[in-house]
C-alpha cells in the first residue's frame, strides 16, 4: 500500500476495502462512482464496467485494464488497479472531481466554451493523444465526455474502454476492423467497412471534439446514428464556418479543418498538431478551466440533476418513440459494433429518414445537448451486446508475459484480481510504455466475501433494458420523426391542427399513396385525414385546373362556371347520383376534354371500365371519339366513389361530434334506476357504432384501393389517349394532303 514511484499507488483488489459513494457518471457500459479507499481514507473513482453490457470481449477488457495501468502521463487517466467483482470489472482510478467536459457543458455551458478555454482543454488532450500514439495506442473514443477535469483545472483524457494497440498483430490487429466508439465522433474510414484505420482516426475525433467544445454539441448530433454515418461518409467535413462561428479565430478554424480532412493520410499527427499556432498561445488549464468550475455544485449533485432531467425528457417523449429510439440506437450499436452490418443497407435506411432540414438547416443547429441525453439513454438501454462471458472465457490465466490475467477459476469467484505482476509490467514496458518497473505482484483474490458496501447500485437500479431485433426501416422512420433533440418540435407538431398535419403529410407523399391509414384516421378527429392520403395526386392535378377554381373543398373545387360566388355548398349535400350536375367538380381529374357523357353501366367497376378502355386504346381499334364517354364514365365513377367516401367520413364525423356533445348518451335527469338501462343502451350503441365503423373502414379500404388503381389507370389512359390523338391528327393531316 501507499505511494509508489512515478505516482503509482498500491490499491488492494478487495472490494470491501472500497466504499462506493455517489454515482458520478455513466457511459455505454460502465457506471463511475466516487469512492473511498478505506485503508487510506482516500477519495478515488471506481468505474464499474458491466461485463454483460460490454461490447468488448474479455481480452479487450484485460487490455484496457493493462493499458490504463501502464499509462503514465499527466494528461491521461490511469488505473490504479482493476479486478472482477461478480459480473463487473472494477477499475480504480483517480477521482476527477469536476467530471467530464460534456457534463460541464450540459450543466453550465450549453453553447460551448470560449476559445481560450477550448485551446487549453484541447492542448492537454492533444498531449495525451501524442503520448498514446507514440506508445502505439489508438484511443478510439476521443470526445468531450472522455475529457475529464479535476477541480484544480487539470485536464485528463479518460476511458480506454475501446483503445487499441497499433502494434498488435493477428486477432488484435483484426479487431481494428471493428467499429467501436460513438458515430458522431467517428472518422469516415472507421465507418467504412474494409478500410482499416490508424491513429489518425483519433485526430478526426479530436477535430469533432473541438467543434463539440465550441458549440456545446457535436456536429450531426441531432440525427439518428445511421444518418450520422451516412453524413460523415458522404458530406463535406464539418467545420467552423457558419455565422455563429465568426467569433472564433482563424487559427482555430484552420486547426479544426486540418483535423477534419477525409483523407486520413492528410491529417496531421498529434505531434505536428501540437505545434500549430492555435496551441502555441494556449494558457495552462489551471488558469482557464479552473474559473469555469467556480460556484458549481459538487459533481454528484450535478450528475443527479442531469439524470433527473434526462428522465424527465424521456418521460415526456413517452413510449413507443423513445423505446424505438433506444432500439434503433442499440441495434445500430449492436450491428455496427459487431462489424456485421451492410453499409449499403444502412445507407438505404438512412436515406429513408426524413431529411427535414438537411445540411443547411443543420448548419444552423440550435439545439444543444439533447443527443447526449439520448445517446446516454440509448446507451444505458443497451445490454447483453457483448458476448456473454462464460466461466471459461473468464478463465483469466496468469501468463509469463503478464499480459494474461491470473487464473480466477471461474466467474463464480466473486473477486478476481486483474493486476499484472512486476515482470509482466516490465515486459509491457518493452512493448511501449515508459514506466518505472515498480509494478504489482499478481494478486489472485478469490475472496468469497460478498461486497459489503460496494455493489454497484446502478446495475440493478436503473432501467437498462435489453433491446434487440433487426434494424427496421419503420423504426428508422419513427426515429426520424422523433428525431433526437427534437422533443420540443415534436410536441409542437403534435399540437398542430389536423389540417396542418394534412398539409405536411401531403408534402411527404407527393405521389399515389396507397391505402389510407385507417387506424390513424379513426383516432384523428379530422376530415382532412383521409384526404391527405391522395393529397399528392390532388396537388399534381390541382395545378392543372387552377384557372377557374374559386373555392377548394378537400379534393373538390368549386368552379366559376356554375356556382354563385360566396355561396357555400356543404360537402354532404353533394347529390349522390352524379358529380356532373353538381357545382362541385373533382378539381382536375375531370379535365376539359370531357366531350360526351354517355353513361357506362354503373355496375361496371372502374377497374373493368378502365381495362376495357385501355384495351381499346392499346389495340388502336376504337376511334378516340368513342373512347371519350368511357373515360368520362370512368371518372364519374371515381368521383362517385370519392363522394361516397366523403359521405361516409362525414357521417362518421357527425357521429363523433354528436357523441362529443351529448356525452354518448341522451341527457337525462339522474335517476339510479335509469342508470343500468342507459348504460346498456349506451354500450349497445357504442357496439353498433364500432361495428359500423369497422364496416365503413373495410369499405373505405376497398374503395381506396380501387380509387388508386383507377387513378393509375387514368394516367395510363391519358398517356395512351394523347398518343392516339397524335396519331389521329397525323392521319387526318396525311389524308388532307392526299386529297
Ligand atoms: N475518474 C473519474 N472521475 C470522475 N468522473 C469520471 C471518471 N471517469 C469517468 N467519469 C465520468 O463517468 C462518465 C462515464 O465514464 P466512461 O466514459 O469511462 O464510461 P464508458 O461506459 O466507457 O462510457 P462511453 O463508452 O460512453 O464513453 C464520464 O463521462 C465521466 O463523466
Automatic annotation (TrEMBL):
Listed InterPro entries: Kinase-like_dom_sf (IPR011009), Prot_kinase_dom (IPR000719), Protein_kinase_ATP_BS (IPR017441), STRAD_A/B-like (IPR047173)
Basic and acidic residues bias spans: 481-492
Coiled coil: 693-720
Biological source species: Macleaya cordata
Residue ranges, compositional bias (Polar residues): 456-469
Binding site for ATP: 47
One of the record's GO molecular function terms: ATP binding
Family of the protein in this entry: Belongs to the protein kinase superfamily. STE Ser/Thr protein kinase family. STE20 subfamily.
Segments forming domain Protein kinase: 18-279
Superkingdom of the source species: Eukaryota
Keyword ATP-binding: yes
Protein name: Protein kinase domain
Region Disordered, residue ranges: 425-521
Annotated keywords: ATP-binding, Coiled coil, Kinase, Nucleotide-binding, Transferase
